[in-house]
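Researcher: Next sequence.
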Amino acid sequence: MRILIVDDERPARDKLRRMLASEPGITAIEEARDGVEALERLPAFAPDVLLLDIQMPEITGLDVAASLPSPAPLVVFVTAYDEYAIRAFDANAIDYLLKPYDQPRLQRALQRVRERLAQQSAAAAQATPAPAAAPLPAITQLLVPERSGTRVVKVDQIQWIETADNYVILHTADGAPLMRQTLAGLLDKLGPRFLRCHRRAAVQVSHIASIANLDKGDGEIILHTGARVPLSRQYRTDLEARLVSECKR
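Model: Next structure:
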């Protein structure tokens, strides 16, 4: 694993380098004193992951994350400010380390990095030659930033999803957490388990118990829990075809 530490404070960089020295599987570590230097180092160093401070002179860590070339390295934000958590996960950060952090917390972040790198390697190995990169396997859990911390939501427990302005509501048996994400963007990550059933809703197919008819070709999806989800005519044909194919397996 190749790591680029990006922080404008020398003591913070030194501390992180010392903590990384005892961790296995790290083949190279370099440092950048600010976001501009980090972007300049990327082509030659080609890091697997950036350990990225947020508040820095000239450009912020969030700006750096938004400017990363494709394919981009993974990003773990390392900051003393918890108010950036939602924006950090919007930037597809794999983790968010809040200073001061200890060795076990750093180890958990590195484990997430290793798991994601392993997924990328497996996807690349299975891909047939094609101009476009192969998609990553569907994710199994979502990290939802909340005021008190970060909530882990298992994807198989999400019954249905609805939009609320620039957020989505994840309806589960344990509640309905709010996540800053577009419905289309989230469905791309979740894979074929979920199908759009309305312009403002999507449902996990395995949670469907039945479909009720409404006027003008519209319908209503009844889940195993009894919850009711709107089904518009334009999405009904695809959803019913999917249910038929599932029953034939």
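Model: The chain is about 35% helix and 30% strand. The mean pLDDT is 87.
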